[in-house]
Amino acid sequence: MRDVELYQQLLGFVAPWTVSRVELSVQGERVDIWAELAPQVRLPCPECETVLPVYDHAEERAWRHLDSCLFKTYLHARVPRIKCPTHGTRQVKKQPWTEARSRFTLLFERLAIDVLKEATVRGATRILRIRWDEAWHLMQRAVERGLRAKDKRVPERLGVDEKAISKWAHYITLVCDLDAATIEHVAEARRMESLDGYFLGFSTAQFEGIRAIAMDMWLPYISSTLRQVPGARNKIVFDPYHIMSYMNQAVDEVRKREHREHRARGDETLARSRYLWLYAQEHLQHKHQERFAVLRAMNLKTGRAWAIKESLREFWKMPTPEEAPAHWKQWYRWATHSRLKPVIKTKKGIQQKLHNVLTYFTHRITNAVAEVINSKIQTIKKATYGFRSFENFKTAIFFHCGGLRLYLVTHTKPG
Ligand SMILES: [Zn+2]
User: Fold this and answer.
1) CA 93 / ligand 1 centre spacing (Å)
2) Distance CA 35, CA 62 (A)
3) How many angstroms separate the CA atoms of 235 and 69, rounded?
4) Rounded to the nearest whole angstrom, what is the distance from the C-alpha of residue 91 to the centroid of ligand 1?
5) What does the alpha-carbon distance between residue 144 and residue 406 come to, in Å, rounded to a whole number?
6) Cα of 114 to ligand 1 centre, how many Å?
7) Which strand (E) or helix (H) includes residue 162?
8) What's the 3-state SS for 298-309?
9) What per-residue confidence (pLDDT) applies to 411?
10) Which pLDDT belongs to residue 415?
């Protein structure tokens, strides 16, 4: 088999394109392949699709292709132009081996996407022998492609969450589809506008499709949702995990104050006990249980705060929307009479927003999925170490968590 035929087969080239020449440079560790269009071929105008004879060719370009036995391989061709009576001289848009604006062949991009999925960006540049900016450009285009191909449907159950990004000492806002476990929207900051940007992409009719939205009790998110989503009052669900974290902070506050009081008289009872009180009782490690039992029997303020916290955990287990308010009232009374300032403050905060705490019992959603994605993003943050802009970071989030179809659709049979 001649070299041109070999590459013709490997590239999966079909008429009217053929491989006309192959050059191997052992010293340069590269293979160069030239593709040529058969004479008298007719191609469509990129504007009106009228099929016309090829008029001339643009300057030669090169596309990086899959390596040939570790030799970098480039495909060269001159893009044909047609002369349309209506649209003038135009380059034919689609070449069968690549996508517009790409410096790579389809097959190379496919491989690059696979590598970038598995490796860090830095690692991928080494494996693929491409530059840092080329890797980002590849990811960007894959994400753009995926977003274009995505259904413009509103998820039924959404989660809104924030993430602190120490790099810029500020926050980003994330919206995720709780059922598909995918990121739907990424925006800077955690302001009302950060979330507005997501909702503005939808029509009034589409909003009907949203059944519930889980979020933290964060005013800008609440305001945005109430303003943009019809019927939001009964769709917003304050995430139980976030509420429990406020309650845990209250317990910790009580412990700190009590520990300070104890310390002042030389009592170290509460020293290094922080996590004992914060764990859910059933998750406490066996080796700590004995000490914890002793502490609990001591009639401490912290012990009281802890018991109130554990009872709030029980609240979420109420089986029906009808039973929940009664448990809440009981809990509320207990918290009110606790004489523990941080507990009372937290109780008040929840009571003010009770309507959308109780919606949990109708919709049964939490932001647990969002939290899982959140920790995945933490990994991405490390893997993209040195991402230089918010846009890059956003690209990486969609690339890894968007649930997008990142590959190009091949117009030719794969080589
Ligand atoms: Zn035309």
Assistant:
1) 12
2) 10
3) 57
4) 11
5) 8
6) 37
7) strand 157-165
8) CCCHHHHHHHHH
9) 45
10) 38
Q: How far, in Å, from the CA of 65 to the mean position of ligand 1?
A: 31
pLDDT band at 112 (very low <50, low <70, confident <90, very high): very high
Question: In whole angstroms, what is the distance from residue 63 CA to residue 102 CA?
Answer: 8
Average the pLDDT over 259-265 and give the result. 95
C-alpha span between 145 and 73 (Å, rounded): 25
* 52 Cα to the center of ligand 1, angstroms: 9
CB within 8 A of 365, min separation 6: which ones? 157, 159, 178, 212, 214, 237
128-141: pLDDT as tens digits:
999 999 999 999 99
User: Inter-axis angle of helices 301-315 and 240-264, to 10 degrees?
Assistant: 170
Helix (H) or strand (E) holding 322: none
The Cα 337–Cα 22 span in angstroms is 86
Tokens standing for 280? 């859910």
Ligand 1 midpoint to CA 50 (Å): 6
In this predicted structure, the answer to whether residue 413 has a pLDDT above a threshold of 60 is: no
**Residue 287 CB contacts under 8 Å (≥ 6 apart), including other chains:** none
Asked if pLDDT for residue 295 goes beyond 80, the answer is yes
From first CA to last CA, the distance across the chain in angstroms is: 17
Measured CA to CA, the distance from residue 401 to residue 387 in angstroms comes to: 17
pLDDT at 412 over 70: no
- The band of 19, judged by pLDDT with boundaries at 50, 70 and 90, is very high
Nearest to 106 by CA among 66, 60, 148: 66
Mean model confidence pLDDT for the chain? 91
Which two structure tokens, joined as six digits, stand for 413?
A: 């049979």
Coil/strand/helix, residue 194: helix
Q: Are 238 and 209 in contact (CB under 8 A)?
A: no
Spatial neighbors of 239 by CB under 8 A, at least 6 apart, are: 159, 214, 215, 216, 366, 367
Q: What is the pTM of this model?
A: 0.86
Task: Round to whole Å and give the CA distance between 296 and 279.
Answer: 14
pLDDT for 245: 94
In 96-203, where does DSSP find H-type helix? 106-118, 121-128, 132-149, 192-199
**What is the whole-number distance in angstroms between the Cα of residue 144 and the centre of ligand 1?**
27
Cα-to-centroid distance, 57 and ligand 1 (Å):
17
